[in-house]
Amino acid sequence: MSTAMNFSTKTFKPRPPDKGSFPLDHFGECKDFKDQFMRCLRENHFDSGACRQDSKAYLECRMERQLMAKEPLEKLGFKDLGAQKSPGPHETTAP
User: Cellular component GO terms, alphabetically (predicted)?
Assistant: First the structure.
């Protein structure tokens, strides 16, 4: 008689995420940037393209506070925004 153990002896080998894991923002160091980004998304019917500057500012905040690994912004999809510094969470960008 066969048993359930005869199906396959392959074992699953988990792989870590490509970018690795990163700490959560437990102390709210980038909360204002996140809130601004989420507000922008709501105001623009969740069109992320309209909120790229806020997204960039949030990621810069996380990198500056070592909440994620530093990456060139070009690799994160912000090549067209170049090296210009993102405004703070309560500043607005000029059209």
Answer: mitochondrial intermembrane space
